[in-house]
Amino acid sequence: MTDLRRAAGPLAAILGLVIVLALLQASGLAYWQGLFINLGIFLILVLSLNLSSGFTGVFSLGHIGFMALGAYGSAILTLPLREKQEYLPNLPAGLAGVHFDFHLGPFPLGFLLATLVAAVLVALVALLVGLVLMRLSGHFVAVATLGFLVIVRVILFNADHFTRGSRTFSNVTPYTDLWWVWAWALVVLYVVRRIKRSPFGRAMLAQREDRWAAQSIGIAVMPPRLLAFVVSAFFTAVAGSLYAHFITSFSPTVFYFDLTFRVITMLVVGGMGSVSGSVIGTVLVVGLAEALRRIEDATLLYGMSQIILAVIFILIIVFRREGLLGQREIALDRLFVKGGEPSS
Amino acid sequence: MLLYVTQQFVNALSLGSLYALMAVGLAMVFGILRLINFAHGDLMMVAAYFAAFALFANLPLGLALVLMIGGTMGVGLLMERVAYRPIRGAPDVAALLTSFAVGQILQNGTLLFTRLIQKPIQIAFPSPELLNGVIAFGPVTVPRLNIVSLVTGVILLVLLSLFVTRTTLGLSMRAAAEDLSAAQLMGIDINRVIATAFAIGSGLAAVAGLLFAVQAGQINPYMGFTPVLKAFIAAVIGGFGSIAGAVVGGYVLGGLEVFLTAIPGIGDILPAGFVSPEVQAFLKQWLPASLTSYRDAFVFVALILVLLFRPNGILRRREREEMQ
Amino acid sequence: MKGKLFALVVIASLLLAACGGAATTAAPSGPIKIGGGFALTGAESSLDVPAANGAKLALKEINAAGGVLGRQVELVIHDSQYKMDVTAQIAKQFVEQDQVVAVIGFTDTDSVLASGPTIQAAGLPFITAGATSPKLPTQVGDKMFLACFGDNVQAAVGAEYGFKNYGKTAYLLWDKGVEYTTLLSGYFKARFTELGGTLALEDSYETDATDFSAQIAKVKALPQQPDFYFISAMPYNVGPVVKQFRDAGLTGPIIGGDGYDTPDLVSVAGSAAENVFFTTHALMDATGGTEGIKKFIAAYKTEYGHDPENAFAALGYDTMYLIVDAIKRAGSTDSAAIKKAIEETKNYPGITGSITFSPEAHVPQKGVTVIAIKDGKFTLGAELVPEKVPAP
Hints:
heterotrimer; A: mainly alpha; B: mainly alpha; ABC transporter involved in vitamin B12 uptake, BtuC; two-stranded antiparallel ribbon; about 70% helix
């Protein structure tokens, strides 16, 4: 009986989400739909970064590089033949014929397949990168992953037969909608939450707190870090694919420091190590940024919104460093349960 | 050919001096605080703006320099007091992230300010005559700016090392860099030491910022991003936290960048007959000029290699174990 | 919990902000709204702010003269912060909440492509002030128009001018981090080699580079100096590049594109900027320019406290006038009518040149002005139309 009651909380939340999405979709208001799609994509990015950096304490500043690879990879796959010939005339023969723009009835199966293929490939890249870089710690790994971000960018600029280089990659089919984004967001939420509660997750958090103590009781440091890194790269690439098929055009300049800081801000505000914190942090920062942007436009004080967000960031780090939630979680599954049954 | 090599060598030295100057300021602060201050580039930007406005007001060069350095030191000290002191003792990453936020504030603050006083976003920098033009040593040309960079850099670094080895405050700084908590236990006023480090670092940033602005020709609120990235790479390659390392790193980076630009395309510029036609064709095919565009990637690969195999930099320096 | 309260405040303010901009049916007697999308903060701002300023100046003049169709005109400006997801959002804001009849703005292709699909889908005409990729109308759709000639046109003129006046060998240097400079150099190379020219050396630099000594040393080491140098650069690099070239002792002619059209070129390069030529829209000089240009420069200075920063100021100005002129000729604010009127624009006397569109050509057939720098001043070199233009 308690199991059912424990499931009631999260189920209610999901139901609420579905209702909101349905209303949004029906309303036809592209502005609000766009905002919620952005919210969902950022949520996936923040959760992934939380998994990789928040849990393990190993800070990766290069994650957006995985997003870029996911975006380009999936877009190259889904680009229909006509657009491929128009915009990517120099693709090698194998890829030039590939176009994942097929459907299963009304369902864009090609899009799902392209996303998965791209994400798996990116995960493999992350495995290689992680094997090399995850042995570093502290600011060393932060710097090294920054290097990864720059290297990806340079490669994207130069592999112009695949990516059009500095010219905008455009005319991607707009498959992404509210349902896709939030379905994936829920998947990521679930996966990250499960990992946090698993032995792997506990190992990650242990070695984040005190690496030497963790090692001394036999917790290996590399496997949880690597797993976190690879899984988070996978989902970051998924976010990249969703982004690519939402904005329908992008260039390597999009996936650089600016986007990195925005995601980090949301992560820090919410709390590194807390899944619910990531949700709250993302909603707050995205919502606040949009509200401030509109005020900025009205008052002509361009630049003000960035200052305010930066100040909030500093205040959080100074006064509440662990973020709004720290490592705690909002126990949705205790919503309908009375009494002190523990849930982590 | 010899001329080409010599000229590129001179270019590398020049570029290296500028990077070294930028890197030393960054290394100063890291040495004591373990803080990677990404707002260092924005300090350079602020310095350039101070200098520009002083020069626009027709102040004599000396006074403009004083204002520039003083103003930048002020901003640096404020930064330390408000943003970094409250988080001393926090994990390194917290401070690094904070420095991004501080940079944002400086950039957008400058943006708002320039709009307020009705100046364009990008302002042509009024370079002093001293820093313009070239000096020719026979067929090899060196911009006067680079000579000034080199000389200034040397002077400042000599002064700095004198300060650090001969004065009490300097000694305290070295002690703090060695072991912050031990220094504190020995009765050293940490606040004063750190403030001094920031002041000196900001002063160095100011000089680097001025030289960078002259080279770039114009200033804008976002100009600090690239220099801090370069300074950062230089400092890490050379040995993070070590001032000598930052200097070496600056020259290594300058050399690396020039080398990576000078070699691709070499097939096109070799004089006829210098090498056999087969070799020339080989060079043209495998080292085309288009390789230059991979330069940044190679630099970062070098950086990552250093981090993996010589984390204390090329100049080895015993570093505190990362107790994490 | 503080967090929850904070969240409530944010959501409330969002709702308020949204309501503030919510759609009210546009009363026929209210102002005619035109959307202005610009990156007023961020890396592109040194180009977009002048464009926005030019557009606002034009707006002021238009309204002072009585507006159009008996109504005042309102330019609703949103800052895209040079973030592409924000750019896409403001396009939706224009279409759904601001109820604009047309959109102008942006000086780069990334932003146009991020906002274009939404505007196209809503059927609104979209004129970009400064993006020059000739492929844009194909990529976005039939509501897309450019206010400038395409890069292929100005590159062709540059190639022909260099070939005819200076010779068959050239050196090509370009900024590889930006679409405009990459396109320009690509089109130049295509046209130049088609004419029979050869490139002695090609090289590139990063967009944030300030030191070009390594590339310059390579040029100097060439066994024989080429007849001219074609350098495809952005306004923020032009000054240092030219200066360092001359400082190194390379005195040959330098040819470039409209990225050179900024007073910063002479301010920074000083006397080095001799023997420099570039293609642009019109001679924007207070002494040598047309009457329209002179008036514009004076008005800009009065309004903003400094001279127009670059050609984009004038382009923003013309774009605003262009769209209002089309509305006047359309006789209504119906988007389809406006679009048709834009397509019927013939020889519109913009200060950046005479603008003609057609249903097939959404990139204007504009003459190209070649500016020569003499004694530190912009002078008219030639006014040319290319003989042949590389395909977009």
